[in-house]
TrEMBL record:
<dbReference type="GO" id="GO:0005886">
    <property type="term" value="C:plasma membrane"/>
</dbReference>
<keyword id="KW-0997">Cell inner membrane</keyword>
<dbReference type="GO" id="GO:0009247">
    <property type="term" value="P:glycolipid biosynthetic process"/>
</dbReference>
<dbReference type="Pfam" id="PF03279">
    <property type="entry name" value="Lip_A_acyltrans"/>
</dbReference>
<keyword id="KW-0812">Transmembrane</keyword>
<keyword id="KW-1003">Cell membrane</keyword>
<keyword id="KW-0012">Acyltransferase</keyword>
<keyword id="KW-0808">Transferase</keyword>
<keyword id="KW-0472">Membrane</keyword>
<dbReference type="GO" id="GO:0016746">
    <property type="term" value="F:acyltransferase activity"/>
</dbReference>
<dbReference type="InterPro" id="IPR004960">
    <property type="entry name" value="LipA_acyltrans"/>
</dbReference>
<protein>
    <submittedName>
        <fullName>Lauroyl acyltransferase</fullName>
    </submittedName>
</protein>
<feature type="transmembrane region" description="Helical">
    <location>
        <begin position="12"/>
        <end position="40"/>
    </location>
</feature>
<keyword id="KW-1133">Transmembrane helix</keyword>
Amino acid sequence: MVKKGFTRLGILFLYLTSLLPFWFLYLISDVLFVIIYHIVHYRRAVVQQNLANAFPEKTIEERQDIERKYYHYLADLIVETVKMITVSEKQIQKRVVATNAQLVHEYFAKGKSIIAVAGHYCNWEMAALNFNFVTDNRFMIVYKPLNNEIFNDFFIQIRSRFGGQPIAMKQTMRKMVEYRKELTVSVLVGDQTPGVNEVNYFTTFLNQPTAVFLGIEKISKTIDAAVVFYDMKRVKRGYYTYTLVPLTETPKQTAEHELTEMHVQYLEGMIRKEPQYWLWSHRRWKFKPEDKHK
C-alpha cells in the first residue's frame, strides 16, 4: 500500500509538472542534463560501451561528443514525455508534422492496412500521438507492458488520449487478426529487446549480433499489410517531422527474414546519420547468440 501511495504521488507530481509550458520544461531539462550526466552518471558505462561497440571506427573524442549530445537529448525527451500527459491537440500538430500523410490514404484506397515500424529514436511516442490526426481509421499502438501496474495504466491513458488503441505486445497477433477486415494502422517498435527464451533470430545491428523480434514480419504476412518505416527527424528543440518510408506493400512475397532485415537496417542508417537521438542508455545487447543455448 505504501509503495502504491508513493507511485500515485509520483504520478500526481508528473501531471502537475506537465502543465508547465514547453519553454519552462526545457529550463528544467538543462538542469536535468547536469544531474543525470555530470552528477548521477546515469548509465554512462552502458552508453559508453554501446557506443564503443557500435562505432569502433570513431575516435574516443567523437564518441564522447555523441555521448554528451545524447544526454542533452535524453533530458529533453524526459520532459517532453512528461508534457504528453496534458499536451493539447494543437501543440501536437504544431510540433510534430507528418511529411507524407497522404501515403496512408493511398494504401487504404488499395485496400491495404498499414504496419508502421518505429525505433527508439527521437520522440517516437509524440509521433504516435500525432498519427491519430492522420486518419480516422482504427489506430493501434503496440507496447511492452511495464512491471509497475499503476505506471503501466498511466502510460496507457497517455497513449490513448487522442483515440489511439494501445495493444499489449503479447496480444498483438490476436488483435490484428480480429480487425483484419478493417483498414487499420498499427505502430510497432522494431528495436525492442526479446527475452532470452523469446529469441528466434539474430542479425547484425550496429556492428554486433542482435536479437530481434520477428513479429513485424509475421503479422504483416498474416494480414497482408503494407509496411512502412517512421523516418523521424528533429528539426529543432521540441519540433519534429516524420516521413513514412515504404518498405513493402506485398509482405507475402518477401523471403523469410527479408522484411526483418529491411526495417533493422533502415533504423541503423538513421542512427548512423544522427546517433545522438537513439536510446543508447537502453541495455539492447543483454545477451549473445551463444547464450541462447546455455
